[in-house]
Amino acid sequence: MGIRKGLLGKKIGMTQVFTENGEVVPVTVIQAGPCYVTQIKSEDRDGYSAVQIGFEHAKRLNKPDRGHLGDRPPLRHLREIRTDDVEEYTLGQMLDVSQFQPGDLVDVTGTSKGRGFAGAVKRHGFAGGPKTHGQSDRWRAVGSIGSGTTPGRVWKGMRGPGRMGNERVTALNLEVVRVDPERNLLALKGAVPGSKRGLLLIRDAAKGGSKSG
């Protein structure tokens, strides 16, 4: 598993920045942190090693959350990050964007935009039926998804119309372009899941590390 860094944040929006070579790079700006360590889990006591971090001040909390946080600041969002390096963390420790550097690769997890009930063409990218030979009402239909006699039904798991989006999605290996510790901002190359003001979990890449590495 190794050592993993992580932060919680909110998506602000997309813009573009210029590199030193004059290249235009599309980036997503994220308000990441500050986060606070609210719980430390160890292999001996809990069966696995992880740190729980909290983000964003909460106006009010229910009784279980108040008891869990104790004297620490009321925090709205709590998430766990698996790491083998729990000895490096202390309860109440503040984490900010300074743990990331330009060129690092990160994985970003969020909830994708909900699209409601969608057809198979929009949901799965189906091509649709032919536009000729009398198929005037089959342009965006699924088409044949099973034979008649055997099995005589539609197999479970076949792609078709249904609810689209509003799912947990992780974008892998996004490059950190800019880090602004004073304003708690991260600029990542490309797009991240979810809408503006959506909650995001940013972790260093599980299959990478830095662009140079």
Keywords:
mainly beta; globular; 12 strands
Q: What would you say this structure looks like, in words?
A:
Strand 1 and strand 2 (24-32) form a beta hairpin. This protein is mainly beta and 213 residues long. A six-stranded antiparallel barrel has the order 1-2-11-10-7-12. Strands 5-4-3-6 form a four-stranded antiparallel β-sheet. Strands 8-9 form a two-stranded antiparallel sheet. Helices cover 8% and strands 39% of the residues.
Topology:
Blueprint: E1 6-18, E2 24-32, E3 35-41, H1 43-46, E4 50-57, H2 63-69, E5 75-82, E6 94-95, E7 105-111, E8 116-118, H3 120-124, E9 162-164, E10 168-180, E11 185-189, E12 199-204
Antiparallel strand pairs: 1-2, 1-12, 2-11, 3-4, 3-6, 4-5, 7-10, 7-12, 8-9, 10-11
Average pLDDT score: 88
The percent range for strand residues is 35-45%
Biggest β-sheet strands, sense, barrel? 6 strands, antiparallel, barrel
Q: Looking across the biggest beta sheet, what order are the strands in?
A: 1-2-11-10-7-12
The helical percent reads under 10%
